[in-house]
Fold this protein.
Amino acid sequence: MLDQIESGELSPGDRLPSERELSERLGVNRMTLRRALELLETQGLLARRRGNGTYVAEPKIERQAGRLVPFTRGMERRGYAPGARVITLEQRPAEAAVAHELGLALSAPVYYVCRLRLIKQEPVMLERFATPAHRFPGFDRYDLSNRSSYDLMAKEYGVTVVRARQSLEPVIATEYEAELLEVRPGAPLMLERRLSLDQDDQPVEYGRDLYRGDRFRFTTEIAPLEI
């Protein structure tokens, strides 16, 4: 089945036959078949629709791990229509880890933002970031459901994000994250930690974003061999 998907014999959107038909066609029992289907689903190659069968999933979206590309711009370049739903946008005292990353005093005021990023109205990424309130006064009066935060910083505050330090690590979805992202608890996610710096090399954003493992693939160009 993996060979058929990778070769294009099975195309995105194709509906698989019933478990009974598949088990007979492949010559395996239904328990073995179910385990194989679960594995392919975990890898993001199949998508189960409750009450409607199992389908070949859409190809994963590639994200360049070594380049700073805003989510909105990156998705538009690939022909997607990105969207967002704001979960939280509020000012509150900075937690210790956030204050440390942003170079602020403990409990200094920051804006916390949590947004669900969408592709074709499907949740694909949970974006969470904090930014210093003194750099962006009144940040919470803007509508972030249809605007890039980097675009907002540049046009309304004259602050341009020019580089970032990022790290990636695999994690699993908590019940709360799974509910928002419409995946099962324990589903694989990719955590991207990001510290963004402005034109004066000052930290302006600390983010911890969660990408659905079944919808994204992270790529990078390999540097020359170190000798």
Summary: The longest strand covers residues 82-93. The two ends are 41 Å apart (CA to CA). The longest helix spans residues 30-42.
